[in-house]
Design a protein that fits this description.
Helix content: 25-40%
CATH architecture: Alpha-Beta Barrel
Number of helices: 15
Number of domains: 1
Bound molecules: zinc ion
Radius of gyration: 20 Å
Strand order of the largest sheet: 1-3-5-6-7-8-11-12
Oligomer: single chain
């Protein structure tokens, strides 16, 4: 991407999203869920596929581990969106904003975008049984090497207190995930506050926030994470449209060795399923699929109790069929794979094209119209249903993938 400086980042995390935007062109501004429909029509609600979706699942264990919170700060939340996203003379950015808001069913002229975003999430959650919950992500600013905030690298900012506040107001549906840049002067104090405030994990997007996991200054932070058993969710793999600080090399899955060696429990977001990364462990490093490096770490016995991967976004059209097949085939990983939606992405027009999954032999053609109808009403339910339906040679994502809550209860060892 040449226009790096314009392609700033995504709390919407969004390598995938932005790849989709670039690929899908302008028609997608019009694509998206049917926002007016508040609940699933009875014919869909009672459909056999949906009934089967819940067989073997305990809704009380079903935590969506990857849900983005977004806002403009119009409710005093402290959220920010880079001004370039609203300016017509930055057409790429404003298209991106429109597409994201459309995917989240937030009208541009909503009295409060902050509140409308949360309302829509609650509305979608109402189609799920009691007990199911969503882990809402805060998103910290980018800081440079010396710990100075870099607003020019920060396209979205969602402060911890906003995520914590939304989760507290709707505790039956939400939990919250803190985001703290470890080079902040008061990073440890913020981490303690997040722990005291009930955060269930911490999230970093290294390439966009400019966090080098190898930086020796992060050790006290790792020690505190390890002692508290708070999982660290790290975005791994390529950020195609290069968000924020533009350091995609920092998303190399091999860098996870550093927090792992310090005893931190790590969740690799999206199982590093997009793009290439340098295999730094060869005499002559060369680019390989980032997913292969994630797989290498998953297969090392040392990290069996510490390394997890979330399956959010992995069935989007921009992943390779080989990634899909591997994730379904590796039943020995399934106890360490975690369901997540990457909301609002399941509602964003071009990112899910079921034809690709059908052609790759992962999805039955007969499932497609039902999935598409569910998606039009409830992208979150669509995302879950899709993950329950995909199969490769008779193997599917096992039920433990959807029993995620157990990984986020501190003080208890993962199963
Ligand atoms: Zn994400």
């Amino acid at each position: 991407m040449q226009r790096r400086h314009l392609l700033c980042c995504g709390a919407a995390a969004a390598g995938a999203l932005f790849t989709g935007l670039m690929a899908g062109g302008r028609a997608l501004a019009a694509a998206g869920p049917e926002c007016a429909a508040s609940t699933l029509p009875p014919a869909l609600r009672e459909h056999a596929l949906l009934a089967r979706c819940w067989e073997g699942l305990d809704p009380g264990q079903l935590w969506d581990v990857h849900t983005h919170l977004l806002g403009t700060g119009d409710s005093g939340s402290g959220c920010r969106i880079d001004p370039r996203m609203t300016q017509w003379w930055h057409p790429v950015e404003s298209l991106r904003r429109r597409v994201i808001l459309r995917g989240a069913c937030v009208a541009e002229d909503a009295p409060s975008i902050d509140r409308a975003y949360v309302q829509r999430l609650l509305q979608l959650a109402a189609d799920f049984p009691e007990g199911a919950r969503w882990m809402l992500y805060a998103f910290d600013e980018a800081l440079d090497e010396s710990g100075r905030p870099r607003p020019d690298w920060t396209c979205f900012h969602v402060p911890d207190h906003h995520a914590a506040g939304v989760a507290a107001r709707h505790a039956q549906r939400f939990a919250w995930v803190a985001s703290i840049h470890p080079l902040r002067e008061d990073a440890l104090a913020r981490l303690d506050a997040a722990l005291a405030g009930g955060a269930v994990a911490l999230k970093w997007l290294p390439g966009s926030m400019a966090i080098d996991l190898r930086d020796a200054r992060l050790r006290p932070f790792y020690d505190r994470l390890a002692a508290s058993r708070l999982p660290l969710i790290v975005h791994c793999g390529e950020e195609k449209a290069v968000p924020g600080a533009g350091r995609e090399d920092l998303g190399n899955p091999l860098l996870l060795r550093e927090p792992l060696r310090h005893g931190v429990r790590v969740v690799a977001a999206h199982c590093a399923s997009l793009g290439m990364a340098l295999d730094l462990e060869r005499p002559r490093p060369r680019p390989v699929p980032a997913f292969d490096l994630f797989a290498r770490l998953m297969d090392e016995p040392a990290w069996r109790g510490q390394l997890l991967g979330d399956v959010s976004a992995v069935f989007q059209f921009n992943r390779r069929a080989e990634v899909w097949q591997t994730l379904l085939r590796r039943q020995d990983w399934h106890d360490r794979l975690l369901h997540g939606s990457d909301y609002p992405l399941p509602g964003v027009g071009p990112l899910y094209r079921l034809g690709g999954l059908v052609r790759a032999g992962l999805l039955a053609e007969a499932d497609r119209p039902v999935l598409e109808a569910v998606r039009a009403h409830n992208p979150l339910l669509f995302d879950l249903l899709l993950k329950r339906r995909v199969r490769w040679r008779g193997q599917r994502l096992a039920d433990p993938v959807f029993a995620t809550r157990r990984h986020f209860e501190r003080g208890t060892a993962p199963a």
